[in-house]
Design brief:
The chain contains ten helices and no strands. The protein is an all-alpha fold and 262 residues long.
Length: 262
């Protein structure tokens, strides 16, 4: 494969997701009590996790999951919700780490069951489900602290779960992880092109989480503005890769009117 096909090694992206994700979450955790504006760090951590998760999805889905591409992204967020609530309910300041470890354990068990019991026979299945569970959990934690302004279990349940905003995180975050490969799959799929789409989709999720935030107007404005900037840069980067890889890019213009079609 060319360097563009797999430009960034799995362990590099794993480090980005875990270190960047936890760093963003804990920066928001410790700085938010000083000024709620700093909750945007949680969203940046979530973006790191989504890029990691998107690459894991593209690697495992390359074995021919087909319709399983969206399913495995939703699976990641489902495991993430369970692990997040468990970790925050018992962990205190260690809650995010406990949630992350719990998710990885759940993911490993699901990977083992998928290969050994269901018989999917994918060599990297166990590692992949472990990683996407961890990525999904960090993504949920990052966007949850943006919305709730805290990782206190009671506040997250009240402001993220009970309000239904968890579904927004679930869908928007899931899209950031599953849509990149689903949109680019095929023999000409390139890692950098797919992951730029992950950044773009995560930027949209950051804007939405900022809009839903109860942390105050400053937190809402800063988070949404940074999210819009990340979306804009991600979209332009993706479009640049599309023009690089496509045989030809044509402007189709406006759709014809009914009279013009007759």
């Amino acid at each position: 494969m060319s360097d563009t096909k797999n430009k960034y090694p799995p362990n590099t992206l794993l480090t980005l997701g875990v270190v960047g994700g936890l760093a963003g979450i804990y920066l928001a955790y410790f700085l938010a009590p000083i000024n709620h504006v700093f909750v945007f760090f949680g969203a940046l951590g979530a973006i790191c996790a989504s890029v990691w998760g998107a690459d894991v999805v593209r690697r495992v889905a390359s074995y021919g999951l087909g319709t399983g591409v969206p399913s495995i992204g939703m699976l990641a967020l489902g495991m993430g919700v369970i692990a997040t609530l468990f970790g925050l309910s018992i962990g205190g300041v260690a809650g995010p780490i406990i949630a992350f470890i719990t998710a990885c354990i759940i993911g490993a068990i699901i990977g083992i069951l998928s290969n050994k019991i269901i018989g999917m026979g994918i060599p990297i299945m166990e590692r992949s489900t472990t990683e996407i569970a961890g990525a999904g959990t960090l993504l949920i934690l990052g966007f949850s602290i943006v919305i709730a302004g805290s990782l206190d279990y009671i506040l997250v349940v009240k402001d993220v779960i009970a309000t239904g905003f968890i579904m927004m995180i679930y869908i928007a975050g899931g899209m950031a992880m599953l849509h990149p490969f689903n949109s680019n799959l095929g023999p000409d799929e390139m890692q950098d092109r797919s992951l730029s789409l992950a950044v773009e989709k995560a930027g949209i999720a950051m804007v939405l989480s900022g809009f839903a935030s109860v942390a105050g107007l400053g937190a809402i404005a800063v988070t949404m503005l940074i999210g819009i900037f990340i979306w804009y840069k991600g979209f332009n980067k993706y479009y640049g890769f599309v023009k690089r890889d496509a045989y030809k890019v044509l402007d189709t213009g406006m759709l014809p009117t009914e009279e013009e079609m007759q």
